[in-house]
Amino acid sequence: MSTLVENGTLTADQAASVKAVLWTPSTKRVVNPTSVLIEVAGYLGGGLMLGGAALLLAVNWERMSERDTVSILIGYAVALVVAGILVAGGPHRIIGLRRGEAPVRRRLVSVLFALSAGPAAMAAGVAADSEEVLAAGLVGFVVAVAGYALLPTVPGMLMTAAMSALAVGGGIEAVDRPPDLLVTYAYVGLGLAWGVVAAIGLVQPRHIGYAIGAGITIVGAQLALGPDREPVAYGLTFGAAVLCFLVYWLERATALLAFGVVAATIAVPEAVSHLTNDALSGPYILLLTGAVLVAASALGLWVRAARRNITAAP
Question: pLDDT for 119-157, tens place per residue?
Fold first, then answer.
């Protein structure tokens, strides 16, 4: 730059202007080690509080009264919520965190709010006279939803999903003489419900909601595995794969592409093994699984490319 000024190509003012444009300050984010340590310490503290609640139940189950146990567990849940509010800087600061301000503080507060559903669920399970799992799941779900509504984040969404699965399991356990395949259909239905919730935008980011729904659906389908029920298992799993590819075509949620490949890779070898009466040996099944995985991956890439071309078309 100085050479251009010296030979008269640029004036000093012009050189300063060019330099200001070309040598802008770096916008690269610098990680503050202190912030990282504070964040990790907060996560560990919340996890230790939750672990302490579980340990308290295990060690003092026989010595403590039901009322005392419930009171202490509720105290743990309240302490986690209060800790989250204090870390946020007060209730009024949570609004700012909802807008994405202070990402480290936002993540930490969301984890503390999410963890509060754990001891709340334990307290409900201990206090319930019957259907303990159902009571725990429902109360935990309500607390998790409240925390997520207060501060919508991925940890809150994951805790809500876990509590919804617990509540469904408790509901199944409460059914007297449950019909065959109730567990499978219940969890497949729960997974589909999560997909619908994500599709209409009730949870953000939506691709996490889709991933939760796809995961629960595939696991629920596989719960049908058993004598004379293999067609239900691989049929629902393959249906989940097709649905994942279809929704990916519409929504472009990459997580669905991955889950679709996984579901297809599980379902096709199961179907072949069942339809051939287990005539294929291990090496052939392994070879088939690899071939299905490659084919499913190729299909996924084709869907992705086709979707991109349609989007880019005028």
Answer: 899 889 888 888 889 999 999 999 999 999 888 888 899
| Single pTM value for the model | 0.74
Contact 165, 135 (CB under 8 A): no
Residue 133, C-beta contacts closer than 8 angstroms, at least 6 positions apart: 125, 166, 169, 170, 173
Q: Among residues 35, 116, 131, which one has the least CA distance to residue 77?
A: 116
Contact between residue 5 and residue 15 where contact means Cβ atoms under 8 Å apart: yes
Give the angle 50-56-57 at the CA atoms, nearest 5°: 100
Record the tokens describing residue 13, joined without a space: 């003012």
Give the model confidence (pLDDT) of 210-243 as tens digits.
999 999 999 999 998 877 788 899 899 999 998 9
Residues 128, 170: Cα–Cα separation, whole Å: 12
